[in-house]
Amino acid sequence: MSRKNKLAKFAENKTFNHVFEPVFSEIPLSDFEMKGRWNAAFFGNSNSIVAEFGCGKGDYCIALSQLHTNKNYIGVDIKGARLWRGAKTREQMQLQQVAFVRTRIEFTPYCFAKNELSEIWITFPDPQLRRKKRIKKRLTSARFLSYYQKMLINNGIVHLKTDDDELFNYTRAIIELNGLPLVDLVLDVYSERPHDAVLGVKTFYENMWLAEGRTIKYLCFKLPDDCVILEPENNESENNE
Length: 241
Description:
Blueprint: H1 3-13, E1 19-20, H2 38-43, E2 49-53, H3 59-67, E3 72-77, H4 80-93, E4 98-102, E5 117-123, H5 142-149, E6 152-162, H6 165-177, E7 182-186, H7 189-192, H8 204-211, E8 217-223, H9 236-239
Parallel strand pairs: 1-4, 2-3, 2-5, 3-4, 5-6
Antiparallel strand pairs: 6-8, 7-8
């Protein structure tokens, strides 16, 4: 994508009233003005809020909002040019229960208050395989799950959809180690659940992986707010770096 095209998308994002771009320049960071106010100040209802972290082009936010019109959806990604696609589709389809936030996932506790989210979707995140010390950057690591506890309701739901075996198995290990209630596990989405409307939503990146013949996997678990999340033992040293 050319720089000119990117700049045009960044500029259009700023015209959308459903795209929010918090600026966190002070240390310690201060809360974003919408924290704790999403339903009252933006959606204008009391429906539960579902977030898609690392939403890319917002495929899941858009699709789920059409499948479940009684819920609100917020897609979060740092890549403004990618996020633009979802924001543009939302504008064209007038999906009033969808919003987008451009920020890093580690800053989301400054954007959402405790009990403000009921579910979190993580779809095809970077598995962070390059070096072991990057394990703490995985979006299902103990570090990030502890962030999610600050935003989710007690026993809120976390969904992971991935093509990566190592990330899938790592997430299973962290679920088992911490005794997190497992809701669902699918080893091959399109073989085991060919008619599942929710799991059948295909993101831009998922279509690329499917074209390469990769198997799509899914995990769903509850996240209690009263437990300290631990890393699997062989990952502890890397996680603490």
